Every structure is written in structure tokens, then in C-alpha cells.
Amino acid sequence: MELSERVAVVTGGGTGIGKAVARAMAQEGARVVIAARNRPRLEAVSEELRAEGHSVLPVAVDVTDRAGIHHCVSRIQEHWGQVHILVNNAGASGMTPMDDADDGLWHTIVDTNLTGVYLLTKEVLGIMSGDGDGRIINMSSVLGKFGVPGYAAYCASKHGLIGFTRALALELVSRGITVNALCPGWVDTEMSRAGIEQMAGKQGTDPESFRQQAVAAVPIGRMLEPEEVARFAVYLASDKASGITGQALNICGGQTMV
């Protein structure tokens, strides 16, 4: 198996892309730490994977909570000793137009998508393998490559995550740890469906019409499935990708060429 006996931490692992990544890595032999805020979903996914015969450790954590992160990483160290793979997938989204008087959502998005990645990565690096098999995979977005009106916070956080990835890759290269970002386009997840409903409402149309409009802009003519992103993450975590670092890799059906 590609990831046999390695310990993989997947944040936001209770749903969507994170859940798919956790399952795909477990299927490749990894012992998987599923970290998420939603405890019921966390437990449900963990039970699913255990029923399939996988080694799973569920850990409830809010990536914006420094003390909670420290407790999470301490539990991982006590349970499995070290970490080989960190997938920073936990994220927040939503519209933050400049005429919105409330700055709360801006802070939530930036704190989760960017500062939270910094805080968790910093803590995990204290127990990350230095034997050439260390992998950090940051879940950015095609919105880390271009802008969308009304989504300044999300775009800023995902652009920032790419910069973080590139700088950290150079900082950790001497430790044998690779750092890369994945930039998905439209993926059929709960977060995407919520975004479609919000943007459809803003345009005064129905969600299905907006979805068709969105898919029409994707050259392959469909949304991606979470499992497709998960397979790419497994590849980046494997020995086969040991020569790839500091990259922001699109998986978007041709939506962007940059």
C-alpha cells in the first residue's frame, strides 16, 4: 500500500473532501487522525472507517483555538508517536461584500483558512517525521488563483495559503518534508451546494440554474467528486511524489490554466 503504517492527520475530515481524503488514505494503509469541530460527524465518519477495518483516531479540534490544537497534537503523539502526513483541509466560506457592515465572517474565514493552518502546522511540525516521508498538503482552491466578486475573504485566504505553501516548502526542504497545495475547482460537496444557493439568491435565480451555469464554465462539463481530489492527495502523500514541493496544483476540470 502507498501509505502503509504512516500517520495522516486530516482536518475538516467529517464531511466532503476531508472525509474522502481520510478514507482514501486509510485504504492505502495509513493510520488516520480525523480532526474536526463537529463531534457527531467526527464520530460517525470514524465508525464508518473502523467498520471497514481501518485504524482511526477521531479528535475534536477548532483550528482557530491554539490551546485546543496543542491538546489535539498531544493526543496524537500519545496515541501514535509521530505524524507523517498533514492535510490542512478545514475551511470556511461565504460572501463578504465590502458593503457588509459586519466584519465577523471575514475574520472567521481568514482565521480558519489561513491562520488556523499556520497554528496547526506549527504544532504538528514538532512531531512530524524527518525521514524524507514528511508531507504537508494544504487545501487551497482555484479561488487562490483568481478572484470572484463578493468573496474577498475567501479569495484572500486561499491566495495567502499558496504563499504560505511556497515559503514553508523552502523552510522545510532540509528536513525532508514536502509542502504542496491542492487547488480544486467546483467539487460536489455540502460547502459547494451552500455556495451555489447563496450566489443564486444574490443573482435572483434558482440554485439549479446557477449550478448549470457554473458547470457550463468548466471545460470537462461537470463538477468533480471529492474522491478525485482525495486520490490526488494520496499521490502527493506517497513516495512517488517525493520530488514535488512548493507547488499549487490545480484539479479543476480545466477551469483555470494558471
Helical content stands at 40-55%
Q: Could you state the CATH homologous superfamily of the largest domain?
A: NAD(P)-binding Rossmann-like Domain
- Number of domains as seen in the coordinates: 2
Question: If helices are DSSP runs of H or I spanning 4 or more residues, what is the number of helices?
Answer: 8
Overall 3D form = globular
- From the 3D coordinates, which CATH architecture of the largest domain would you assign? 3-Layer(aba) Sandwich
Unreliable stretches covering 5 or more consecutive residues: none
Strand order of the largest sheet: 3-2-1-4-5-6-7
| Estimated radius of gyration | 18 Å
Mean pLDDT: 96
**Beta-strand percentage range:** 5-15%
The CATH topology assignment of the largest domain is: Rossmann fold
The CA-CA distance between the termini, in Å, is: 32 Å
Number of separate strands: 7
Q: How is the biggest beta sheet arranged?
A: 7 strands, parallel
**Classification by helices and strands:** alpha/beta
CATH class designation of the largest domain: Alpha Beta
- Report the order of strands and helices: EHEHEHEHEHEHHHE
